[in-house]
Request: fold
Amino acid sequence: MTETSFWDFPADAGVLRYGEYSLTIVHPGSPTEAVDLPARDRVAARRFAESFGTIDTILEDLGTVPATDDVAAGTRADLELVRVGCWGGVVEIIDPALGHTADDFPVLELTEELHKNLPDAVIIAACTIDDSTTHGAWAIFHPSGTKLLASGRHDQEDDWYVEGEPQAVIDAFGITGEALAQEGIHLDEPDHTFPWDALTQLALERVAPLNHDGRAMSVFRVRHTEDATSIMQEAWLEE
Reply:
């Protein structure tokens, strides 16, 4: 371990799994059309990253990347990179520390804490890690009090954690039956085959523009907290 790292693995150690991980906060009054979003706020992006629960400190500001760029970590050093976009009341962070392959997912705890501090905001997060199967966790919070948390492995019928009901999310966000049908969402599906990703995307579409064409996100190299680093090593680097 160096002065600026809690890692036990060298920077060039290969990442063994692929994943997707994002968390979005939509504050009240935010526009729902991409053309109405304000320009990227670089200062707000850094401030948010500095305050985020998985991050100990920012080591380096690496500028920006297009928000549509693919996110893929090939080495341990790539796991130190987080992307943050702040466009007025819409904030998005892409951070590999959100995922885990065990029973507990950091994203569930983080969204719970954010909701306590931002009860009037919509908070939506999704993270998946693909190994021999897909491990996933999803969180949806609506200002009305509707909450849905789900996590588990798609190859296991049991041992899923689900709090809340998809129907409550559908009602709170005004998701239409047509939209559900287009995404193949059927409420009677068991937890391990239910399309949680599709439901979170539909909810997000109702409150925030998802079209990031022409937009940029700040990229920071960070030192994650010691706890977050330990979880990341297990999730991404260990056999």
